[in-house]
Structure formats: C-alpha cells, structure tokens
Amino acid sequence: MGIDKNKLTIRISDSKFNEDINKMSRLAIFNGDAMSKNDFVQQMIRSGLDEYKKTHSDSTESNNINSSITTINTHIVSLKESVDRLIAYLLSKDRTNKSYNDALLLLGSEILGVVLDISLGVPVDKEDIASGFYDDIPEKIKKMILEASK
Fold this sequence. Notes:
mainly alpha
C-alpha cells in the first residue's frame, strides 16, 4: 500500500464550523454543485485560495513596489528642484559677495594710498581719487589674497 502524496488531512476543532461544512456540503451535493463532501471542501478551499491570491498576489506586491518607486522618484525630482534653486541662489550670492569684496578691496586700497600720500606730505586732490589714481592694489595685499585663495 503506497502513500498518497496528494492527501491532506484537516482537523476542524470548531464544532459549529464543522456542522456548517456538513450542512453546506449536503446542500451542494443535493443541488449538484459537488459530487461529495470531499469535492465540496476542495471547491471551498480553491475558492478561498483564489481570493487570497487576489489580495496577496505578486502583482499586488509589484504594484506596491512600483508605487513606492514612483513616490521615491517624485521625491527625488522635488529634491533636485530644491537643490537646483539653492545652487542658483548660492551662485547669485557668491557673485554679489565677490562684487562687494572687490569694491571693499578697491576702497581699502584707495584709502591706503590717500593716507600714505597725506603722511608723506603729497597733496591729495579729489579729482585724482575720482579718476582712479589711487585704485592700484598694493602687491602685499595681492599676495595675501592669493595665499588665502589656495
């Protein structure tokens, strides 16, 4: 006598549930929907299994993964747009700061030139200042700027 590999034994300890199965299987046999109690139980298990697959199938998991990927992509696009705006803002601030720094450096050089001329007794004319006569940045300051930018 060989072992039937397709045999499955189920123990139902809930007596009310067992009575429902018995009643419904007799009704299904009487209506011609099942050939036996075993046939009826198999049909019910198949039906339940099909419903379970619908709610827990790989396509649902795949849809959840695709939905998650879409959500992540949306967040990445939004984050990229924010980073792009931040970069544009910082670049504009950098240009503005460079302009201010250049103006301050020029002003400091003019003041230094004027103070040096005054200390040496050289007459300082406001037209010389306006025309850019004192705009030369001393070599010492240029070297300091080069060292700081390395």
